[in-house]
Amino acid sequence: MYEGSATSTPAGRPLRADARRNYDRILDAAGSAIAQHGAEASLEDIARRAGVGSATLHRHFPSRQTLLEAVFRDRVQTLCATARDLAADLDPERALVAWLRAVAVHIASNRGLAASLMHGARDPARDTTCHALVVSAGDALLANARRAGAVRPDVAIIDLLKLANAVGLATEQEADGAAEAERLLMLSIDGVRPRGARATRTTR
């Protein structure tokens, strides 16, 4: 897990296996609840989905903010792992496009999560680390695509992340925000390709 997540006791000892399972179940349940109801999803509902009591949830996550932060860190790790898998499995252009789609869908599916974290108690170290991890994962994919001649040389990973973020935030409150985010991103992605390649490629 991401460094700083609640995977150990205050004394620094690793969580017991049963506590680790509860922690993972709560994270999964929180992700599902946020996708359905937004960042204000009921903590009681999250505990019920996870099959744990409210006391267990609060033992791992003393506040809503700490739970939202853990969900966010978990999503960042997932995006980084996805980037590595795509780089291994697909050609450079397809890998980059698929990852940007995953970023946009991630934002659209985590309804209100970014806004809640922005308005809560900020953790600059967390923000900086998570940002750096995502930029590094995407930059590796972009470098591969650039070497393959599939991306304009003036495109930076920050440009692409801004695009994916804008699409995700614009669609997060829609009934099927993830699908709409994917559709809009694919409408936009042609702009990053070299001019001569745009007429000959189709969206994926």
TrEMBL record:
DNA-binding region: 42-61
Domain (HTH tetR-type) ranges: 20-79
GO molecular function, one term: transcription cis-regulatory region binding
InterPro entries registered for this protein in UniProt: Homeodomain-like_sf, HTH-type_TetR-like_transc_reg, HTH_TetR, Tet_transcr_reg_TetR-rel_C_sf, TetR_SbtR-like_C
Pfam families xref list: TetR_C_43, TetR_N
Official protein name in the record: TetR/AcrR family transcriptional regulator
Keyword Zinc: no
Source organism, top-level taxon: Bacteria
Organism: Frankia nepalensis
Keyword field: DNA-binding, Transcription, Transcription regulation
